[in-house]
Structure formats: C-alpha cells, structure tokens
C-alpha cells in the first residue's frame, strides 16, 4: 500500500482500491459531481454510492465528465432495503445501472440484512454476477450470523462486507470471521462521523505530523481494511488520500485498538428498523 490507486485482490480475482470516496449524505447534482471530480483529480479511482443516497445520477455524470477510462475506475453501489427480494433486486439493479450510466457495476452490496429477505436477495445478486453484470458482489452491515445464512444458502462467497469500523468500534470478531472466509472488510464512517476529539489522536497527530483523520485512515490500512472516507471539501478529499508516506508503529496500532468501546455512530444491524 504505497499509493492511492493501490488495490487489494478480492476472493474472485477482481482488484479493488484500498481507499475510496464515500458519498453518503452528499446532495445529488453539483455537490456530488464536484466531490467526485475532486476525488478523481486527486487520484482516487474508487467511488462508493448507494441507491438510498439518491445521488447515483450525479456520480454517473461526474464519472462520464472526468474522461477517465472506465476500466480504471471501481464503482460500488448498494441495494436498498425496500427493494430486497429476488425479483425486486433484479429490477432495482437495473435502475441503479441506468442512473449511474454504466453497463457493469464493479461491486454491488446488500445495504442491510433485512430479515427474511436477504437470502433471496443474495440469490438474485448471484444471478446478476454470473451473467457478468456485476464484477463482484458483497454485503454491508452483516453480522456473523447473517453471513452464515448467506454461506449456507449460496455457492458464491461474498467478496466484501462493508461495516462501521473505527478505533471506537474495532469489530475484531467480525473482522476475524470475514478473513477466515476470505471476505474483504471495508469500513464505512471510518472517521467516526467527525467524532475525532480523542487525546490519543491528538498525541499521534503531533507525533507523526499528520491530521487526526489521517491517523485513523492509516490505522484502517494497516489492519488491511478498505476505507471510504466522505468529504465534500476538496482540501479534505486530498488530505484523506495523503496517508501513504508514513506508518504507525505496532505499539501505536495497539493503543488505537485499545480505544474500542463497541461504540456505534450509526445503526446497529441487529436492532435497526428496516
């Protein structure tokens, strides 16, 4: 991991950039278009959106206007909860593909594990994957017991599980389970939705001459977790990519791990009103 465009190889051979731009809560139109363009200009090649974000069209427009060859880009989107189920998944996928304006989605995720639906949803995604319409399929916010249901029901192992993960929610058992099954972990809200006011982060930022955000994002990388920080400010987007010229010591990694409080800033997948 020496560069913003360095990639991890997923369990099916597809490669995915370690760092991407997340666009949750970024308004469709000019805001998301300018954010994505700023990221691509800064060297990002991985953009993460979702049907629920309601900005797939803007993401697609920014990709088109960037002039960057499609094969250099890695685009993720996600299926929203109300569209889960076999037939509705197939239809929702077509809608996302149309809004993004791209033929093949690089990574398609089930956004949340909707009880009673996610197994049939996965089977529909396997169909799309085998038809070549998606390069890799995966999960988001799935706990160990949810993943076991998927593994028991289908012949395609998820390539990715995108979860809330940061020093205050280290998710060690879930990460270990994913690695045992060759499922790549990916962190959403890696910057704790801006809750970075922690003395240890202040200390380490001074020690390494980096921002607190850069310390946390580097922690992700050294744990081999794909990370997708969100920002709409160009200088922050550039700053979030500047994490390849230093390395946290093993001791400092352990100290960051010790911040864990199992603290969520987003919903709990086991107690979420779907």
UniProtKB/TrEMBL annotation:
Record site feature (Lowers pKa of active site Tyr), residues: 78
GO molecular function: oxidoreductase activity, acting on the CH-OH group of donors, NAD or NADP as acceptor
One Pfam short name: Aldo_ket_red
Highest taxon, organism lineage: Bacteria
Domain NADP-dependent oxidoreductase: 20-260
The keyword Oxidoreductase appears for this protein: yes
Assigned keywords, A-Z: NADP, Oxidoreductase
Lipid metabolism listed as a keyword: no
Active site: 53
Binding sites annotated in the UniProt record for substrate: 111
The family this protein is said to belong to: Belongs to the aldo/keto reductase family.
Designated name of the protein: Glyoxal reductase
């Amino acid at each position: 991991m020496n560069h913003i465009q360095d990639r991890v190889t997923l369990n099916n051979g597809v490669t995915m950039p370690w760092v991407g731009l997340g666009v949750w809560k970024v308004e469709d139109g000019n805001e998301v278009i300018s954010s994505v363009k700023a990221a691509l200009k800064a060297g990002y090649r991985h953009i993460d959106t979702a049907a629920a974000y309601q900005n797939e069209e803007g993401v697609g427009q920014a990709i088109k206007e960037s002039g960057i060859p499609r094969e250099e880009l890695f685009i993720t989107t996600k299926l929203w909860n109300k569209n889960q189920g076999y037939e509705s998944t197939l239809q929702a996928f077509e809608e996302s593909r149309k809004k993004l304006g791209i033929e093949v989605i690089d990574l398609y995720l089930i956004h949340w594990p909707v009880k009673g639906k996610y197994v049939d949803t996965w089977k529909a995604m396997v169909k799309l994957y085998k038809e070549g319409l998606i390069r890799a399929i995966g999960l988001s916010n799935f706990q160990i017991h949810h993943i076991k249901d998927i593994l028991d029901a289908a012949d395609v192992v998820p390539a990715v599980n995108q979860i809330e993960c940061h020093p205050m929610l280290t998710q060690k058992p879930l990460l270990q389970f994913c690695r045992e099954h060759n499922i790549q972990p990916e962190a959403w809200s890696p910057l704790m939705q801006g809750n970075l006011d922690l003395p240890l982060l202040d200390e380490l930022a001074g020690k390494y001459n980096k921002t607190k955000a850069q310390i946390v994002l580097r922690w992700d990388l050294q744990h081999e977790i794909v990370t997708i920080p969100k920002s709409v400010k160009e200088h922050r987007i550039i700053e979030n990519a500047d994490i390849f010229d230093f390395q946290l010591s093993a001791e400092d990694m352990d100290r960051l791990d010790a911040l864990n409080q199992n603290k969520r800033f987003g919903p709990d997948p086991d107690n979420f009103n779907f």
